[in-house]
Specification:
alpha/beta, Rossmann fold, 13 strands, binds UDP-4-deoxy-4-formamido-beta-L-arabinopyranose
């Protein structure tokens, strides 16, 4: 059973490709490597021990996409391909509306043309904005987004729900990720930030390995126990398995539109992540405290009862596993040759 993974060479996509193979599916990765590298495809194949379906393509190229779908005849799509930097989206909103919205619409026109029934969408906790009630449930009303990136996820969810409301025999699953971290236990795939990482854990691992001189903690005057922001950090392999389960469920159902939070169901502060990294990996991190980062919210973590009850999904990895696997990956990255 072939499953199309747009952006499948990315951080979440690559780990999902591996878990799909582990569960008997055949992923077909579409990626233009704007946020990845062909090294990831090579290493996915090392992990699964065979070739993986792959096309180097911009998902905005509808003609090429139509040829691929016609040839591969997938039974489902997991749509990861999107730009995801909050800061960059503020500086370059049109790039985000083009890639994250208009390319989604053209993909859905092909879904309709080829009657592909099952669609899983990579959404984000960012749709909750600065939540009033924590932990956040899927039924929490979403707040105004803080950035064009956040709007593309909110609008993306709306486009999808409106489109799937017209398709009786199809199914749509929206997965609202919290903070994906860690790497595959093999150390062969992980997060591959292009340039200076904006996310916390890759910045920590790059500081630990000496690529960055110092980590700045953006604010320690928040109303939290240690003054630093609290997030819900979920291991990327657990997140990948939530996609496999969502796909399996959606292939069995018709006329199905569901939204699930995917997180640990608990919060960790920036300082707790740093301390966990130092304790688990026996490496000291050079950090100081700086000003708050615009757009950051003080605290958010997920209520994951729905995905637990309905899919029997549970996070299997904890924060210590995530910081260990992330460090293992950073160290292996030193030896890997990027493929240009
Ligand atoms: C986490 C905490 C920072 C870097 C983003 C997206 C969200 C989702 C996950 C895709 C914050 C602090 C960070 C640093 C720091 N992505 N930090 N120094 O902002 O919670 O969420 O990634 O769906 O949509 O918004 O993640 O890792 O950037 O920050 O102090 O050098 O770490 O202030 O409190 P964030 P993050």
């Amino acid at each position: 059973m072939k499953i199309l993974l747009t952006g499948g060479a990315g951080f979440i996509g690559s780990h999902t490709a591996v878990e799909l193979v582990n569960n008997g599916y055949s992923p077909i990765i579409l990626d233009d490597f704007r946020n990845s590298n062909a090294l990831i495809i090579k290493n996915i194949e090392k992990i699964i021990g065979k070739k993986v379906g792959f096309y180097s393509v911009d998902i905005g190229n509808k003609i090429k996409l139509r040829e691929i779908i016609k040839k591969e005849n997938p039974i489902g799509i997991i749509h990861f391909a999107a730009d995801k930097s909050v800061n960059e989206s503020v500086l370059n909103p049109l790039k985000y509306y083009k890639n994250n919205i208009s390319n989604l619409v053209s993909l859905l026109e092909l879904v309709s043309e080829f009657n592909i029934n099952s669609f899983v969408f990579s959404s984000s906790c960012t749709v909750y904005g600065n939540p009033i009630k924590i932990p956040v449930k899927e039924t929490n009303e979403t707040q105004p987004a803080f950035s064009p990136y956040g709007y593309t996820k909110k609008v993306g969810e709306r486009i999808l729900t409106d489109f799937y409301a017209t398709r009786e025999k199809s199914s749509l699953t929206l997965l609202r990720y919290f903070n994906p971290i860690g790497a595959h236990p093999s150390g062969l795939i992980g997060e591959l930030p292009i340039g200076v990482p904006s996310n916390l854990l890759p910045f920590i691992t790059q500081t630990a390995i000496g690529k960055r001189k110092k980590l700045t903690i953006y604010g320690n005057d928040y109303e939290t126990p240690d003054g630093t922001c609290i997030r819900d950090y979920i291991h990327v392999v657990d997140l990948a398995n939530a996609h496999v389960l969502s796909l399996k469920f959606s292939l069995e159902k018709k006329n199905y539109i569901k939204t699930y939070n995917v997180g640990m169901g608990k919060g960790s502060s920036v300082l707790e992540v740093i301390n966990s990294f130092e304790n688990v990996n026996k490496v000291a991190i050079n950090y100081d405290f700086g000003a708050r980062r615009i757009g950051d919210i003080p605290k958010i973590f997920a209520d994951i009862d729905l995905i637990k009850d309905e899919m029997n999904w549970f996070p299997k990895f904890n924060l210590e596993n995530s910081v260990e696997h992330a460090w293992n990956w950073e160290k292996k990255l030193m030896d890997f040759k990027y493929i240009s």
